Amino acid sequence: AVQGGVFSWWSNSSSQRNNTTINSSTSDTDLYWGAAAGYAVSEPVTVQLQYTRYNLSGSKANSVMLGFSYMF
Questions:
Q1: Sequence-distant (≥ 6) Cβ neighbours of residue 32 within 8 angstroms
Q2: For residue 23, what is the DSSP state?
Q3: Domain count of the chain?
Q4: What angle do CA 34, 35, 40 make, to 5 degrees?
Q5: How far apart are CA 29 and CA 7, in angstroms?
Q6: How far apart are CA 13 and CA 15, in angstroms?
Q7: Residue 18 belongs to domain with CATH number
């Protein structure tokens, strides 16, 4: 399966050096895309693999997921 869409995110950070503290906050809405596949090992067991790419404002993040499901 192919997936894609938009997601909203936010980030808060704080940095301190000596007696100075700098606080930063940002948020945005960006695009993501990915693909997923599953394989039925046996009738009740399926293994899944999923890859997702997030295009954050000026940066990129990747996610890989390996999972399994058991139907009873």
A1: 3, 4, 5, 6, 7, 52, 53, 54, 55
A2: E
A3: 1
A4: 155
A5: 5
A6: 7
A7: 2.20.200
In terms of Cβ atoms closer than 10 Å to its own Cβ (0-12, 13-18, 19+), residue 50 is: middle
What is the DSSP secondary structure assignment for residue 49, as one 8-state letter? E
Q: pLDDT (tens digit, 9 = 90+) per residue, 10-65? A: 999 999 999 999 999 999 999 999 999 999 999 999 999 999 999 987 789 999 99
For 24, the domain range is: 2-70
Instruction: Report the alpha-carbon angle 23-29-32, nearest 5.
Output: 120
Whether residue 6 is predicted with pLDDT greater than 90 in this model: the reply is yes
C-alpha pair distances (Å), 8 with each of 19, 30, 32, 54: 34, 6, 10, 11
